[in-house]
Amino acid sequence: MGDNDTRIELTGLAGVPESALSQALVATLPTNQAPAPWECRCSALLWLGRGGRAAASVLPSALAGSPALVTLGAFVRYTDTPVGAYDEVLGIVGSRTGLRPWGNVAFMSVDSQTSLVGGRTNWAMPKTLARFDGELADGQLITGSSSDEPSWTVSATPRIKGPSLPLKVKGNARQQFADGRVGDSLLTFNGRIRPALVTVGVSSSGPLPTWLRPGLHLGAFVEEATFTLGEPTFRG
Question: How far is CA 3 from the centre of its chain?
Fold first, then answer.
């Protein structure tokens, strides 16, 4: 554990109000136990939402003015990572620079302190702690809820609508670090997905539902996948 005043890599990240860390929580957090890159195995539930002004408003200052083309919400159940198994809920704002797409993780919460520290330290992903209930399965409800203030809850129920399909894809996660630098990290994904309709619930004492919107969404059920998130490279 470290002095709160010296852990700027954890407390100095830009993020939505739902990503705030309390001083009491920071005081309990371990040091970073797993530097980048990470290779992980997981199943997941993904859904797409529209972008627009509300989504653009949650981008950090270094990315301000970028268009919010789409949002992506997800529940992820990790079975193998450098910090062990854990669950995650997240919200991403998708944008582009010229023709090059990228995503900014504006909201992310997990049930693992070591994952929280690794995510913030390695990639400036504003992870907080959450509680999870339910299963990732067709017709089943899964819920993530805040462990601290502000209070929020995200839930999702998928209806699988098609066969299993292979998917290999690469993406770019673009995050603003505590010192103001912007880092790009390559995500490489290899898995099997099934198309789904996803009924999403989002409630919060903060603005989360204004951009990670509740309702019925097009999405995908990830049966199994392996992905690698690389060490960030810094622009400029």
Answer: 26
